[in-house]
Amino acid sequence: MTTDALASPAGATEGPVPVVVLVSGSGTLLQALVDAAADPAYGVRIAAVGSDRQCTGLERAERAGIPTFVCRVSDFADRAAWDVALAAQVATAAPTFVVTAGFMRILGPLTLDAQPVVNTHPALLPSFPGAHGVRDALAYGVRVTGTTCHLVDSGIDTGPIIEQRVVAVEEGDTEESLHERIKVEERDLLVDVVGRMAREGFSVEGRRVRLG
User: Fold this and answer.
1) Phi, psi at 177, each rounded to 5°
2) What confidence tens digit (pLDDT) does each residue in 41-84 have?
3) Domain ranges (residues) in the chain
4) Domain 6-211, CATH
5) Which of 121, 132, 150, 179 is catalytic?
6) Among 71, 135, 194, 209, which is most exposed with the fewest C-beta within 10 angstroms?
7) Catalytic annotation on 121?
């Protein structure tokens, strides 16, 4: 995705904005979006939910009557072929943007370039990127950490930051206890950002993301 001058003006479409959500696990972030999207005023229609495996997240989508698909990496000769297939699956839903909600695969260039992709990370980027952000922040001894909502690029948690929420580190925190408090903020942050992107539009200039 090119972010030098990307824009999605508010009011560009009538009715709810179609969004595809990608999941890999239990789907708690997805459920927060499904619950929010049940209110027409939220401005989002979850057009499809995709995954790289069978998972509980898909079951949540199916119960909500949302179309689902599975695109496994192991079904293709290489990751490039998987990227082609995933991009095609996503395109059938014609989303304005994609949300990765606990999706545990690195997206390829075709999927990333087709539309903006939104992700959350359980740390205050650019600090502590990667799969162990909570553990790494706790081990480093920070007094505050949190969660970041950002656009996805070809790097690991390196895309432009949309919004962040701070979570204090408490005495005696374990990785699990800290992560549970971060998850509460992460769900609320994702719901807020996705809704605002849909209702207000957004623009990206360099590393600056502006909503509205």
Assistant:
1) -65, -40
2) 999 999 999 999 999 999 999 999 999 999 999 999 999 999 99
3) 6-211
4) 3.40.50.170
5) 121
6) 135
7) yes
